[in-house]
């Protein structure tokens, strides 16, 4: 009976994995698809990091991979899991109706472009969240705490030299210090909408990379930064690899049009060329820092970080 219940619990996960616009494939060969890379390809803060600055391989993930969406819409895509018609939200509600208690995480990378692309990675926790865990602090904390802790590690596994040079060997940033993030927290999910266009340098790097999209293999890991000895070693929440994506493969998402988003999108080409003029040197030498934002981020972000770090 226990095995039957476990199989039923995993069945909905396998269904979600297989339903996206691009397929789930093997990590070593996933053209125009996605996969879950091994955790050891990422380096995270080790147990003695505060004393020695030593990092260790990431190891096992805290969450299970659930799915990946490569989608586009008439406006910037956000709050996917607040939409009852969203495919992952429907699957989640169905699982909960059968007595399961999963908790879903969604990281929505909003790509600055006229076609409003989003790359969305979904992960799921099947065990109850521990009260004294860093995850629980993140979920119950305010946006200031979340912005100061949510970390992204990006690896360019394969791609042209210019993109690898722009991103670096392993780019690391505290997402909320570099980019505008919107958090949607529900009873059984959390979604982070990450506006890449909110940073001139990130915007320019992504525009550069988008031109080579069909030749790129990218690994992205999400984790909550450990800042005290009791929070180390760091553990990766989850990671996704996408490879050689074709823009034409993106699924079409119909959303109600909003004027504010339209105004933002119409300004993106101008912002892009300004970012090229003001920050091209940062593309060649980005210098992403372990504790900082993306190098060369806008003055507004720098000022906000300075205020946040005042005692």
From TrEMBL:
InterPro entries: EDR2-like (IPR045096), EDR2_C (IPR009769). Residues 34-246 form the Protein ENHANCED DISEASE RESISTANCE 2 C-terminal domain. Signal peptide: none annotated. It comes from the Eukaryota. Residues 291-311 are annotated as: Disordered. This is Protein ENHANCED DISEASE RESISTANCE 2 C-terminal domain-containing protein. It comes from Handroanthus impetiginosus. The lineage of its organism: Eukaryota, Viridiplantae, Streptophyta, Embryophyta, Tracheophyta.
């Amino acid at each position: 009976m226990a095995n039957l219940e476990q199989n039923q619990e995993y069945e909905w996960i396998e269904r979600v994995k297989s339903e996206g616009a691009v397929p789930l494939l093997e990590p070593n060969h996933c053209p125009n698809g996605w996969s879950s890379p091994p955790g050891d390809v990422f380096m995270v803060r080790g147990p003695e990091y505060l004393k020695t600055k030593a990092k260790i391989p990431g190891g096992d993930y805290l969450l299970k991979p659930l799915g990946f969406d490569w989608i586009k819409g008439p406006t910037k895509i956000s709050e996917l899991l607040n939409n009852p018609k969203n495919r992952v939200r429907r699957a989640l509600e169905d699982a909960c109706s059968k007595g399961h208690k999963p908790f879903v995480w969604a990281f929505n990378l909003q790509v600055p472009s006229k076609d409003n692309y989003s790359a969305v990675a979904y992960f799921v926790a099947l065990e109850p969240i521990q009260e004294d865990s860093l995850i629980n602090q993140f979920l119950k904390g305010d946006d200031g705490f979340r912005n100061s802790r949510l970390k992204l590690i990006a690896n360019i596994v394969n791609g042209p030299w210019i993109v690898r040079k722009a991103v670096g060997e392993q780019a690391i940033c505290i997402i909320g210090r570099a980019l505008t993030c919107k958090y949607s927290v529900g009873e059984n999910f959390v979604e982070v909408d990450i506006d890449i266009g909110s940073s001139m340098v990130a915007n320019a790097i992504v525009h550069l990379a988008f031109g080579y999209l069909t030749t790129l293999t990218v690994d992205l890991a999400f984790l909550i930064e450990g800042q005290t000895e009791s929070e180390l070693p760091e553990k990766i929440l989850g990671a996704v690899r996408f490879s050689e994506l074709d823009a034409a493969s993106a699924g079409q998402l119909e959303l109600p049009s909003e004027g504010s988003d339209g105004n933002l999108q119409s300004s993106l080409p101008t912002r892009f060329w300004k970012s090229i003029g003001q920050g091209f040197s940062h593309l060649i030498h980005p210098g992403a820092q372990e504790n900082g934002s993306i190098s060369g981020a806008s003055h507004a972000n720098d000022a906000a970080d300075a205020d946040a770090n005042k005692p």
